[in-house]
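A note from the maintainers: we've had questions about how concatenated examples are separated. There is no special marker in the raw files; a new sequence line simply starts the next protein. For clarity in this README we add a label.
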Amino acid sequence: MTVRQEKFAALLKSAVVIPVLTIERIEDAVPLAKALVAGGVRVLEVTLRTPVAIEAAKAIMANVPEAVVGIGTILNGDDLARAEDIGARFGISPGATPELLKAAAASALPFAPGIATASELMQALAHGFNLTKFFPAEQSGGIKALRALAGPFPDARFCPTGGIGEANAAAWLAEPNVVAVGGSWLCPAADVRSGNWAGITAMCNRAMKSLKPA
């Protein structure tokens, strides 16, 4: 594991849960981040799924210094460069093309490419990424699939995301090759829309108390 990957793995391990944030309105960014941090959730993945994503990430970095902000849904080298330009602490992709893996390997940004199969994991490993995002986790065979990958790839570490929530997060975190889990259940869209920040903080508090670091 490279030093960069080791530090990234340690960061995710300490975080336990990485909330996947799809921010529709720029004005929600800072109160949402503050609500998550207040609940003990500091490592945040802001996805590039909305037009305001980059501005939202910048607003969080500027106004919520306790938050560790990364960029998710990185699909190509341009997205990676945008994440680097704003000073994101890490990058995460749902999958990986050879071009993206090459760009990420040449970049200084801690990065977790998305994989769902053995072949995709082999590509990631070949580019020096032994920490990957297993996505979509439940839909790709769940914990059984992850255990199957552990045999031929004993050094690979994963942040499973997709179909993970309050009911099954602990089971995923109990797997020895899992460093953290990702999910959007800590910040339900309805709560964000209605500004139920106290509800989000309470949910984070509950999750952090019940989930132990992997």
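[label: protein 2]
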Amino acid sequence: MKVLVTGASGFLGSSVVPGLVADGHAVIATDVRDPADPTPGVVHERLDVRDRHTVSEVVGRHRPEVIVHLASIVTPGKDSDRAREREVDVDGTRHVLDACREHGVRRIVVSSSGAAYGYHADNPVPLTETHRLRGNEEFAYSHHKRLVEEMLAAERERTPALEQVILRIGTILGEAVDNQITRLWQGRAILAIRGADSPFVLVWDQDVVSVVRAAVSSPATGAFNVAGEGSVTVAEIAATLGKRTITVPEPLLRGVLAVGKRLGLTPYGPEQTIFLAHRPVLDASRLSALGVQVTPTRQVLRRYAEQRRPR
């Protein structure tokens, strides 16, 4: 098939593009940046999903059967702000959906996140794809993923002929992963909140790539949680990584973060304690409909620890 990928030079896209080529697809790789290592046989185009006209022009010129929409801001840079993140995540998705409708794209595969469920003390454990999405407004990424999924739901009513595959991805680990979670684990000790297990569901980066590749050609549609089976607590993470934990009461951490944010010492505010304490635990058993098996969470953590062990 002819497949257009947005965010093709990003962390996932740079592995998804060669994978799709290996599967025999004709790939148009688009991104705001040029690829560091262009894949032979791939058409590379500069594309900013914030520009509705350009998105429509590129999709109309190439006429892909499938769009893999990966363009998103997962780990904001120092110069980022919430308005720009919304322009990319929410407005960008709107522009891609409009182009799909205008030019008869058959299927769209969207990288969403388990964050769309939100970080809430009363989240069901585990969460399935049927549970309500309650992405917290205080967290830009979580809120934006919820808005994107609400937009996708509306588009299903408006354009039922457009097949949708939505991937709600858990915490990604891998050899070269650098995100907000892994940065929490880089010091000599890992922070834990007293009375909270803070369970994490993990998925290996190459497993995510396999899921995206399957989502392009599988007849299955709908939402899919993407995570390894099971979950691990902060204590288990620390033990596996050979680190100690520092356990603090939630009110104390909230106060410290409030002062640090006000003084410009940290980008994280007091709301971050919710993010740390109430992690969404995903049931990813529905992935079997895509014909993909992913590495269990505990095995992902062990593999990650082994990659970082001094040689």
